[in-house]
Amino acid sequence: MTSKTSLDKSKIRFLLLEGVHPSAIELLRAQGYSQIETVPKALQGEELKAKIADVHFIGIRSQTQLTADIFANAPKLVAVGCFCIGTNQVDLNAARERGVAVFNAPYSNTRSVAELVLAEAILLLRGVPEKSALAHRGGWLKSATNSYEIRGKTLGIVGYGSIGTQLSVLAEALGMHVAFFDTVSKLPLGNARQVVKLHDLLAQSDIVTLHVPELPSTQWMIGEAEIAAMKPGSILINASRGSVVVIEALAEALKAKKLLGAALDVFPVEPGSNKDEFVSPLRGMDNVILTPHIGGSTMEAQANIGVEVAEKLVKYSDNGTSTSSVNFPEVALPTHAGKHRLLHVHRNQPGVLSAINQVFSDNKINIAGQFLQTNEAIGYVVIDIDAASSDLALEKLGQVPGTLRTRVLF
Ligand SMILES: NC(=O)c1ccc[n+]([C@@H]2O[C@H](COP(=O)([O-])OP(=O)(O)OC[C@H]3O[C@@H](n4cnc5c(N)ncnc54)[C@H](O)[C@@H]3O)[C@@H](O)[C@H]2O)c1
Ligand SMILES: O=C(O)CC[C@@H](O)C(=O)O
């Protein structure tokens, strides 16, 4: 071994925020990583900049905003683990520009969200939130008025992805009719049917539930006009992102009794920790279920997410495998026993690959294995070579125009 460039595992620092499940920490430790700092809440601003400046991997959930400014203060950062589905809290382009790979857990909490939504639909159709709140204040509302079975009702799902489809199957098992709206043509499961226009879906659903990602096209997609298009006496459920619903329009519709009730798990502004105050125009409305962004917060989901994302970070750290990254070219790599592995992340521009190959031919370095994948913005080349040449090759690769980041593993 001649090189001192591969960072020893004992020096690789992880920062895990927002109460990432201990299963992640256990897995990292079992894989030989010992420098793991945990913080139970989200960090922001100067506090986040100070912490991220020194770490190689950061783990977050939905509250920590990783902006271009934050990435500019993270010179050592190799990868981000989002211990959740949503990645809207991360500036994925800024990460990519710095050669930082971002991973998430696209499936582990989907069942938890689907179960919560169904439970809320049942409780709201029975008027349970108001009846329970009244009973807590000493009241007694034994009445069938505005109480309905879920059987035979139409569930309108907006966004028929991992969560929407699970919900579809579970809802049909309870005897519901399912209709959905999605911008992409989707195979309907069971007897579900796709509706072409959002407003048509809204007009025919007894319960509308939102399962779209946060995107420019989904921002405020449910506003005054959409709520007006909903059936009188119907229910709105949002467990997607707070930016999807215009909360003031919803509050007005609830006050006007246009809607029977609503359940919200996500909000335009959410407290960063359990100690901060939750502020919303929906506070105090007994026919509204308000939950603190816990759609995916079950012991099962969090434990699975901890393992899933930690495994992805370990694979990327140990071996360079970037499979299922949300912003990075995906490369599944074999082991590299006996060889040094060079990782080169570069802008996807003409001439970079030939310049890389030139480094090896000019310096007479034999390539034992080479792997390449590109996306529209960056390229990721992995090259296995003999240990004796790795210091020189790494230095030369770093000088190739268009280079964003280099690493060596052995
Ligand atoms: N409340 C929680 O705790 C919680 C937990 C998990 C996920 N989520 C949120 O739920 C979202 C959905 O999760 P998923 O796993 O089902 O995602 P997914 O990517 O599998 O599915 C999203 C679906 O929305 C569709 N879509 C995109 N834009 C649309 C538009 N403008 N109109 C209609 N459909 C559109 C997509 O085509 C896709 O089918 C996540 O992005 C995340 O923000 C919240
Ligand atoms: O656990 C969280 O903070 C986010 C959960 C959910 O919104 C997700 O995107 O998976």
From TrEMBL:
- Part of which pathway? Amino-acid biosynthesis; L-serine biosynthesis; L-serine from 3-phospho-D-glycerate: step 1/3
Q: Name one GO molecular function term.
A: NAD binding
| InterPro entries given in the database record | ACT-like_dom_sf (IPR045865), ACT_dom (IPR002912), AHAS_small-like_ACT (IPR054480), D-iso_2-hydroxyacid_DH_PdxB (IPR050418), D-isomer_2_OHA_DH_cat_dom (IPR006139), D-isomer_DH_CS (IPR029753), D-isomer_DH_NAD-bd (IPR006140), NAD(P)-bd_dom_sf (IPR036291)
Q: Which GO terms describe its biological process?
A: L-serine biosynthetic process
Which interval of the chain is the signal sequence?
A: none
Q: The ACT domain covers which part of the protein?
A: 341-410
Enumerate the PROSITE patterns for this protein: ACT, D_2_HYDROXYACID_DH_2, D_2_HYDROXYACID_DH_3
The EC number of this protein is 1.1.1.399, 1.1.1.95
Top-rank lineage group of the source organism: Bacteria
Sorted alphabetically, the keyword list is: NAD, Oxidoreductase
Q: Please give the PANTHER family that the UniProt record associates with this protein.
A: D-ISOMER SPECIFIC 2-HYDROXYACID DEHYDROGENASE CATALYTIC DOMAIN-CONTAINING PROTEIN-RELATED (PTHR43761:SF1), D-ISOMER SPECIFIC 2-HYDROXYACID DEHYDROGENASE FAMILY PROTEIN (AFU_ORTHOLOGUE AFUA_1G13630) (PTHR43761)
Q: What job does this protein perform?
A: Catalyzes the reversible oxidation of 3-phospho-D-glycerate to 3-phosphonooxypyruvate, the first step of the phosphorylated L-serine biosynthesis pathway. Also catalyzes the reversible oxidation of 2-hydroxyglutarate to 2-oxoglutarate.
Name assigned to this protein: D-3-phosphoglycerate dehydrogenase
Query: Whose protein is this, by species?
Result: Rhodoferax koreensis
Q: The organism's lineage? A: Bacteria, Pseudomonadati, Pseudomonadota, Betaproteobacteria, Burkholderiales
